Amino acid sequence: MAQSHKELLRRISSLAKHNQDLTEENERLKRLIEKLSIQNEDQASLLAKISTSDIPVDQKGMDRPASVRFDMVTVMYASVLGFSNIQATMDSQELMDELDIILYEFDRILKKHNIQKIKTIGDTYMAAGGIPIKNMTNPIEVVMAALEIENFMKCFPQQQGRTEKVWEIKLGIHTGPVFATMSGKKKVNYDIKGDTVNIASRMETYSKDGAIIISAMTYELVKELFDCDYFGKMPVKYKGDLEMFSVKGLRSEFAFGDSRIIPNAAFDTRFKLVQFTELQEFILEKLERELPPHLYYHNVKHTVDVVTEVELIGWTEDCSDEEILLLKTAGLFHDAGHTVTYDGHEQAGTELARTLLPGYGYSQAQIDRISDIIMATKMPPQPKDLLQEIICDADLDYLGRSDMIPVSNTLYKELKELNKIGTLNDWNKLQVKFISVHQYFTKTARSLREVNKQIQIDRIKSLITEDAS
What we know:
Distance between the termini: 117 Å
CATH class of the largest domain: Alpha Beta
Helix content: 40-55%
Largest sheet: 8 strands, mixed
CATH superfamily of the largest domain: Nucleotide cyclase, GGDEF domain
Number of domains: 2
Number of helices: 15
CATH architecture of the largest domain: 2-Layer Sandwich
Radius of gyration: 30 Å
Structural class: alpha+beta
Strand content: 15-25%
């Protein structure tokens, strides 16, 4: 029995040494891959300068993987280390099964946060946020995934019913541009290359067990949501020393209870405010494509003006983060219904919002509130609460601006082309009547714009001809 025990210990010791050798070889290969990646990127840059007319005809039709540049991708390297910690009582097959469980959980966490798994290299797990669908939130999503991974690994021994710790986790994260190559037909696989990948890989090697190390670039993009400590500097060839930070968890105001990894409603709102940039880009592009050419006033510029103005008035009126989000979203959609109809465009805008906003994580209650805010812009405005007052004031902000007359003329041109108004003289008389009775609802708008309205009335009156009936 004693001999059998000694033989088991010898085999375990041999396995541990073999694993250490593999680890060292893996590090050597990673360094080689990093060097080759740099060389490959240099060659790719050179090839990009070559015109397709310089490529032989027989090569132009060849199938090749498509390469796409992504300007902002967050790359995460995670190393799972454990075989060096094995003990005599542990079974090697059991350890391999546990590793499968760990990697499966990593896959689940990545899918939850819309992060693309790239590949597994030995004991290193590589993933990236921001591909294949470009987005502005990928640094936040990758850091959230890293926190869940780190917490899972910390709780894993207890889940397996033991007290000793076998597995270790090191994480390195960096954000920047990459070149992504896509291959495969039934299932698309991605490979990414560039300095961003190399730096993330090196940061993982600088990390330590249980640490989430992020670059200064990633830190700047997530520091408002996460508690981070300065970790140190990492020398990078041709770039100097790069600063690194360790992520401790969510900031207390964005965490649920005492948790450092479970986000609360405040986090969700801040996340959507970052994500709003993507939603705005999508809607503005839709307006550029689909708005009729005769909309000289209700165009992209007016939508951008309203989104900007509701935020300005909203902050001045002490609105919360969520109220600012609702206002900006309503401002973005308030005239989007013009892509469908002119009369009744407000209702069409709410229908578009109800179709698109669930895909951006808005709750039903938020969508209902946004729809009510949009409908408040229907003429004549009759707002029922502060948010509706704000968007009504933002929608007619031009009435108290110095450019009121040229803006007003674009609205006249639009209405004239739709046969909804007579002469310019008729329009000016209508404007004087409308502005004379109009009042801004919010204290902010009254203080900013009301003072100029009388000046605008006098200017328009001077344009009205005396012989007009």
